[in-house]
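Quick entry between incubations.
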Amino acid sequence: MTNNIADIDNCKTMLVIGSNTTEQHPVIGTRIRRAVRKGAKLIVADPRGIDLANIATLHIRQRPGTDIALLNGLAHIILKEGLEDKEFIANRTEGFDEWRKTVEQYTPARVSEITGISVDDLFTAARLYGGNKPSTIFYAMGITQHTVGHNNVLAIANLAMLTGNLGKPGAGVDPLRGQNNVQGACDVGGLPNFYTGYQRVADDAARAKFEKAWDVKLPPTPGLTVGEMLQAAHDRKVKAMWIIGENVAMSDPDSRHVVESLNTLDFLVVTELFMTETAQLADVVLPAASFAEKDGTFTNTERRVQRVRKAVNPPGEARADWQILCDVANHVSRITNHGAAEWSYNSPSEIMDEIASLTPSYAGISFARIETKGLQWPVPTQDHPGTPILHTEKFSRGKGLFSAVEHQEPAETPDQTYPFTLTTGRILQHYHTGAMTRRVPGLETLAPEERVEVNPDDAARLGLNDGDWVRVTSRRGAVESRAWVTDRVGHGLVFMTFHYAEALTNALTNTAVDPIAKIPELKVCAVKVERASR
Amino acid sequence: MPISMTINGKAIQAKEGMSVLDACWANGVSIPTLCHHPDLTPMGACRLCVVEVEKMRGLVASCTLPVSEGMVVHTETPKVVEERKFVLEMLLSDHPNDCMTCEADGNCELQNAVYQYQVPWKPHKGKTHSYPVDGDPNPFVFTDFNKCILCTRCVRACAEIQGRNVWGVANRGFRDKIVAGADVTMLEAGCESCGACAAYCPTGALTDKSSRGSGRAYQMKKVTTTCVYCGVGCQFDLNVKGGKVVKISSNAKAAVNGMALCVKGRYGYNFIHHKDRLTKPLIKKDGAFVESTWDEALTLVAQKFAEAKGDSFAVLASAKATNEENYLIQKFARAVMGTNSVDHCARL
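Done. Structure below.
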């Protein structure tokens, strides 16, 4: 998020696009509801009638995969109506005139045709976002999990720059990160192309810095992303893998392919709390400590680095990941004799000190400083108070660049054989592949099984009643579960979660990825829906 | 403009718009409250916070009285004490005398006030309420409205914190009661099971169901930590007793969320001590997992990893692991295994 969570109180208009906030980020969802209670305007752009749509000033249902057309269309109207922030554009941005030529092609009539949203609603949305400022945009995987995910985000940034909604209270571009520490895992280099703090592995100076700090020669070429690793395993280029706390056999697209890939490996190690679907495929499973059994830090979606504290001992011989990492690293080093010194960290606090020493945005962070309250990066020095709002004076690259992006259809669109669009996500009561939440009896009481959301008109045509068993089939697999007949989904759209192993939704999803972000198009694939014979 | 006033003979400065209660609290003068909570809109319902203000008639609820210039306040006069005792006597006349087994014992604001003013519980001859105990099927919130004092903190917490409006007050007079929706179940009224109502309840009327009987507030060690589910970064207190996490409670000082939590954050902790937890390293032999020692597992893992050194190896880090662990994972891939093939579920 460019802005902090508490800053929601300062928003006058909120555009929520591709985020089912009250279910996926419930406490941010409550902040949005509180802001609406106090008079803020809320635009929900979502193909589904999510909970927030009930209190929205305007709910627009774009056809899945048409966000660029929608966002360009809003920019088009904002320009037509003279609602753009001319001063911000002149002082803080570049590439405006070039970009303008593209959005001029996105007339309300054309955008309405592509997205399925009425021209009137497009005007209402544009006037609210561009006219009732400050405005902020919340988005999540509904924007990014597309083959145009990267361009979707650019289109959002364009809209925010056009209206000067960046670098000030109540404004912002606010991606909501899905997992407790997905922000932190990225920040500290859990990515194939970056060291900590987004320092590029391909950059000679950055690499030299880490080679010196770690006293070892480092590989200069970026590595593989998750999807590429699995494909490389399938192709026998990757022979051994270590999966730490992820259940890819359920969470990644095209589960059959994932399982085949992992089974092709010569050697798979999984570190886990439970015998997950992925752990079952391993050659060695190492028992890990849970968050309540170790010290450390998580970084949240507003870039706040906060303490995690050990409250109880791990069960049996389970150990914290950082301890397992040290042991494995030292064992391997002894065999390969690569010459680096033994890892001898005594505590997570020492590891954070090393992160801070190598990472400009974390330089001022230490366990002592975040003992009572977390700090929001960038924290460049020991006495820096942290940064609640980004880009107040300038952007990371200097001027904000308008990037022209064009609408492009999803990789798989409905056809005669697969006439429905499947979109996937999570629900309030469960989390990801359910390894934790499905072991909580009360959560199972609330949400015991998968329910495919089917529009009432579609259900009538298919002869389906609420609660009937349905079979959902894609080019990659088939899944059976009960139907929830509801107008939460529009015509031709079905929604499923990926929480339930017994209804393995990712057996259906598409592995097509965004060419830059390499993110799979989990939000759109084509399926067939029929009554199941049970 | 600061406002000058006098509290119990001491001259103090207060901010304009502040209540007398806040001015007292800010100056270290304690006043008991029940319906008041700093996060919620003041109500003036319970009358426990009454004070005497010179030149004002009768006693005034300090929570809804704004400060004014030259105000002279007395917070603990015999008249005030008598009134507070009366309020508490009235509440006790329709309140079960079962602190011994009450879930809220030790964490009950009514109990604290009754103790402070030494108001004895007496059997009541008149009409009392009788509501079903655990009368709502919500799996996480335990209701016992026999203990309700109609402070409406649950109503305000649901509306103002959670933004959900599940709770309301029905009827009038003695028949007043807290209801979910139009007197339906909590879930039917749109409850998201966040537990805010229980967290804000000053008595044992609304409590956490999954931790009932697992320990008194004063028996718990509280450890402040950050939630393991989504990316909001809510903080809360793990309540530990006998080496086990038996409950999660709100920590009002949490930077991001204050007292607010969602159903997973507040109640999704039973996996920690679940019987399915892995407790020993496992090595697959002839298709079946066999328990091993750490030494044996580490030796095997290191040997196989060493054989795959370079780009034949790949590692998945974890958005569930800490920053420190993820840092070591990528360092392991790059510095020890000689590959940049490290990624995690950022795209999923």
